[in-house]
Known about the structure:
Rossmann fold, six-stranded parallel sheet, P-loop_NTPase
Amino acid sequence: xxxxxxxxxxxxxxxxGGRAATQRLLDLAARLALRGPLLLLDCGNSxxxxxxxxxxxxxxxxxxxxxxxxxxxxxFTCYQVKALLEQVAFFPAQQPLxxxxxLATFYDESVSDAEGRRLLEQSLHCIRHVRRxxxxxxxxxxxPADFPERxxxxxxxxxFADQCWLEExxxxxxxxxxxxxxxx
Length: 184
């Protein structure tokens, strides 16, 4: 998957991957901002606006006008994610919603697995409301190795999505182990 296309229907799209997935959504955000209003929700404090601005400068001679179409909110806990999604759901603006790194706060070790699941299900209910009037695009990362049980959160989200893309993991080759007995 090299690029995410502009959404034409009110569906939920999920991209599972790392920084590249976030970068793809930022590039898409720039193209959507040229069309009209756009809401960005950054849940993992991972959406660096600088690449977005660079992409807008590449796409238009008036990037400031396009930036005016973007409304950004950041959430630092899964409780804040749920609260922001409730606000968006009950006052739908019929504008695309891009959510960066949705599950980052749900992987917090101070939130129990059961509580995280409950909050995620409530958040998905809010996303369902938004999806009725606008497309929703979400990027997520796999859970940390310390929390393999939270893989179920990714499965829950992908099962809820209309389309789910899995970014291929490119594993770096293991470092070469030098033998202690090799002669130089």
